[in-house]
Amino acid sequence: MIFNVLTLFPEMINQAVSHSILGRGIRSGHITVNCVNIRDFAVNKHGQVDDAPYGGGAGMVMMASPVFDAYVSVMGNKETKPPVIYLSPQGRVLTQKICEEIAAQPEVILLCGHYEGVDERIIEEIVTDEISIGDYVLTGGEPAAIVLMDAVSRLVPGVLGKADSHQDESFSDGLLEYPHYTRPPEFRGRKVPEVLLSGHHGQIDAWRREQALDRTKAKRPDLL
Ligand code: 9WO
Fold it and tell me: How far is the CA of 137 from the centre of ligand 1 (A)?
């Protein structure tokens, strides 16, 4: 899967995606992150990409033409148009289901805004989807793009190793995770539940399923 990221801070994206499972997916060739620096398409030799808002008011607005030219540069001579996702508090809130839909695409373009946002005509002209990662305001879209890429890339076939992925195939679907334990068997007087040490895989599965359900009821009943 290819993520093209239109951003004023490509180093922020490249730094974040080089780690963890996303970084492994990139190194194994299952994921490509192609950052395009919107500054490279500045309107003048001063590197200008933003301007004061028409109608007045505080702050600056990202100009349409640098964003559009960055978009055209990634489109090149592609035969099909990938979805263009603008990360914004005004979007639909990202869910696992939306992540699955994005993971089914061969390629997407993520647009990261800054300042007070991008010129509205860019949203009309190139943006196909607006996505929010939650109801709070950031200083720019980059952290949201990183969150989206992290959540989507682990759904791309081949990115998670066999050891990581079994959980997605099993009963945990739509529920919170059951509690996990590793050595030692006792920590500050707290013992690992007996069933996990029993070696009865049927009982272990049943216990985990019950724990996942109980936790979901207690902590996130809205998910049921
Ligand atoms: C800043 C601002 C300042 C004065 C008056 C109104 C204002 N609105 C904004 C604003 O929303 N700025 C955004 C910053 C513009 C688009 C990129 N930025 C952003 C993206 N902040 N938060 C997100 C975001 C993206 C996805 N999910 C959650 C938050």
Answer: 5
pLDDT of residue 162: 75
3-state secondary structure (DSSP) of residue 193: coil
The pLDDT tens digits for 88-109 are 999 999 999 999 999 999 999 9
Cβ(113)–Cβ(140) under 8 Å? yes
Ligand 1 surroundings by CB, under 6 angstroms: 58-59, 87-89, 113-114, 116-117, 132-134, 137-138, 140-141, 144
User: Distance between CA atoms of 222 and 192, rounded to whole angstroms?
Assistant: 29
* Better-predicted residue by pLDDT, 20 or 131: 131
**Do the beta carbons of residue 141 and residue 86 sit within 8 Å?**
yes
Supply 1's token pair.
């899967």
pLDDT at 224: 93
Q: At 164, is the pLDDT very low, low, confident or very high (cuts 50, 70, 90)? A: confident
CA–CA dist 100, 123 (Å, integer)? 24
Given phi > 0 = left and psi -120 to 50 = alpha, else beta, which region is 188? left
Residue 175: Cβ within 10 Å count: 18
Task: Specify the residue with its C-alpha closest to ligand 1, atom 27.
Answer: 132
